[in-house]
Prior knowledge:
The chain is an alpha/beta fold. The mean pLDDT is 91. The protein has helices at residues 10-19, 23-32, 50-57, 84-87, 89-92, 101-110, 127-136, 149-161, 174-183, 209-212, 215-222; strands at 39-43, 63-64, 73-76, 96-98, 117-120, 141-146, 167-171, 190-192. The two termini are 38 Å apart. The chain has a domain at 38-98: Alpha-Beta Plaits (2-Layer Sandwich), CATH 3.30.70. The protein is globular.
Amino acid sequence: MNKYKYEMKPLFEERLKKLMPNEEDFQAFNKIVHTGPRNFIRCNTLKMSPDELLSRLTKRWKVIQPFTEHKEIMLIDQELGPGEIGSSIEHQLGLYYVQEIVSMLSPLALDPQPGDFILDLCASPGSKTTQIASMMQNSGTLIANDLKFNRVSILSSNLEKNGVSNAIITKNDAIALCSRLSKENWKFDKILLDAPCSGEGTLRSSPKTFLMWNPKVIEKFSCLSG
């Protein structure tokens, strides 16, 4: 069932059909983006084990762990009321982070380890940063950078809420920061660059992107450096 009334702008549809020339692929994409996102959360293992959190949450919701190798990833497999997932006491205490599964993939690919020296260049609001810190077990050093003060403020709040203690927050243009670090011969074990984008991957959770999308937005974000 289509939940949202927004439709693709002609230029957006044209662009996607170039990226997905197979009509079946395009139609499958067009169907899924008009369906609301599923309720994924990530257990904050800095504060609680997945088993403990699952025991708490199953008293209230139907919760499953779809990936045996990543028990921290959980799906609340039922309809929820507006704001329900974010207003629970467990969320307020930072025991879990509301995070779409696609957002969790890049930290999993990065594979942070305890003791690593990691740079997260465009860190706010902190979903991936807190996930990285959790995988590092608060060991090692994580530099979390963003460009604007309001985004740094949100990042700081989320790191504190989630009990992250191995992060250093910086406010810099990403290109300028990397240039300085390179000149000073800084070396990192891993770097995550989740650059600002046009939001085409968030259509399910933010359907107004259908209305906001335009080619100039893509050009604008391609020039951003942090």
